[in-house]
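B., you asked whether I could sanity-check this one before it goes into the benchmark set. Here's the sequence:
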Amino acid sequence: MNINATVDRKDIKEALGILAAPIDSHNADPPANVLIERLRTALHGCPEFMLQGKALQWKVRLILNDLGFVVSSPREGRESLEEFVFTNPHADPDRPVVVEVKSRPAEYEHRLVPLRQLDDFVFELSGEQEIRLEGLRSRPKKSGTVYREFGCLIDDSSPKHPTPHKGLLIQNAPCNLSFEHRSKDCFQFQQVEFAEKRGFCLLSLEDLLAWNAACRKSADMKDQFWVAIHNTFGVLGAPQNCNE
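And here's what the prediction gave me:
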């Protein structure tokens, strides 16, 4: 994984602090690869259902990286762990996935804040503003084929998004309950409704871990995971064969 010397190293240290992982006092500024290995060890020793903040964000980022996806921050000077992009270099590299990573305690009420943040990010990276201006200039005819993109009905005679991105919210909720004590619905009704309208994919941390395990057992599952993310408008569950 490429580690940004000024941004990522600081965030790794903050994640280690959240995980209460000791830092060698004799080497206060270790190489990035040493920090990553310390972080992996600390994450391995922490119950996954408890992960939140930068610890959760690094867990998700490392999973996607280790599966062979290319993880990056496309906004120079605005790097963020909770918002990043990943691509599949072996399938549809021109259809990046924009990720928002969040944790939510049981009492959390601001249900749509993460999705609105994701919506803004997708809007920016997909060139939505430019395509809307182009659409106003061209006034497409009504005879084109209608299809769905970003949760909207689009006429195929209208201008296309220059850089279409798929929105993905990965959420650990409620993070103060173990997986076996949670209800099946990690996402609230308002979140599902918003995601369906905007064409976003919702994935719980528990189901991400199930996909990760399945992908490690079968190389074909990685491409299935990629396709499933792009084809899902709403909640993506665990792979059907995850318990086999």
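One thing to flag: The chain has two domains: 1-46, 47-126+163-235. Otherwise nothing jumped out at me.
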